[in-house]
Amino acid sequence: MPTPFDPAGFNPVPGRCETLSPGLRRVLAPNPSPMTFRGTNTFLVGTGAVAVIDPGPALPDHLSAILAALAPGERISHIFVTHSHVDHSPLARDLARATGAPVLAFGDSRSGMRPLMQRLAAQGVTGGGEGVDADFAPDETLADGAVIEGGDWALRALWTPGHLGNHLCFAWGEEIFSGDLVMGWASSLISPPEGDLGAYMASLARLRALDARRLHPGHGAPVTEPAARLDALIAHRNSREAEILDALSVAPATIESLTRMIYTDVAPQLLPAASRNVLSHLIDLMDKNVVAAEDTALLTSRFRLG
């Protein structure tokens, strides 16, 4: 469930190419929603032979807008995908067909899941309908640390699982394209088994250690103070964990009851998403032997302190 930061002033026109800095352009996809804010940010990096990061949803108008953003004589040489949710990856197929450029990502939508999450999936724990692109298959897979170079750009892949197992960030000099690991308007939804809170927290810590100058998120405005934003995201998750432990110290509780106790300021239609974040915390606490479930049906079980 997103927790808003300060999105003031971020209201670009969908489909309009904006130059953010030399060698960096952004085209906003026309897919606003309670989970995507204004829509998905598609980035064009470099000039001449251009890299595209996160083509976005499979919308013909957005495909046309990306192609229209190219200057005369330019071409798209590479298509990078941070992760395979339906608001980030599906248009990669159409863009590849239109340009001949390869699609590069960590792997398909099941890649990067650690054994704990694979076991939960096998036990019947399913995602909360956040929209995984089940058919996504990159032309080339990128290992952590891989560097891909174009004519006047270079991107370094950073494997940052948590929001999804195949999530990558891309370092571009002192700036980082942060996908949905760090967004410019809210915290990320972590929905098991695809989402993994333990991995997410480790990925936040990794990005924090890199001391980037600016982050370019998949949704919302550029993050101009990355250290402060990352510290806030880490503190936010630690606060949620403390709230869950405080509630369980009073009595065992279900995911539904914990969600209603903790997310008191959330619109009713967003409570299902909030419950997925609660589940992610409970699984992480079970993994650390702090909390236990009273039966194996996690989505309906009561949880207690271990």
Topology (elements, then pairings):
Layout: E1 17-21, E2 24-28, E3 41-45, E4 49-53, H1 60-68, E5 75-80, H2 91-99, E6 103-105, H3 115-122, E7 140-141, E8 147-149, E9 154-159, E10 168-172, E11 175-179, H4 197-210, E12 214-217, H5 226-250, E13 253-254, H6 255-262, H7 271-287, E14 291-293, E15 302-305
Question: What features would you describe in this structure?
Answer:
The protein has 306 residues and is of the alpha/beta class. It folds into 2 domains: 17-225, 4-Layer Sandwich (Metallo-beta-lactamase, Chain A), CATH 3.60.15.10; 237-305, Winged helix-like DNA-binding domain superfamily/Winged helix DNA-binding domain (Arc Repressor Mutant, subunit A). It has 7 helices and 15 strands. It has helices at 60-68, 91-99, 115-122, 197-210, 226-250, 255-262, 271-287; strands spanning 17-21, 24-28, 41-45, 49-53, 75-80, 103-105, 140-141, 147-149, 154-159, 168-172, 175-179, 214-217, 253-254, 291-293, 302-305. It has a 7-stranded mixed beta sheet. β9 (154-159) and β10 form a beta hairpin. α4 (197-210) runs antiparallel to α5 (226-250) and α6 (255-262) crosses α7 (271-287). The protein is elongated, with a radius of gyration of 19 Å. The chain starts with 16 loop residues before the first strand and ends with a strand.
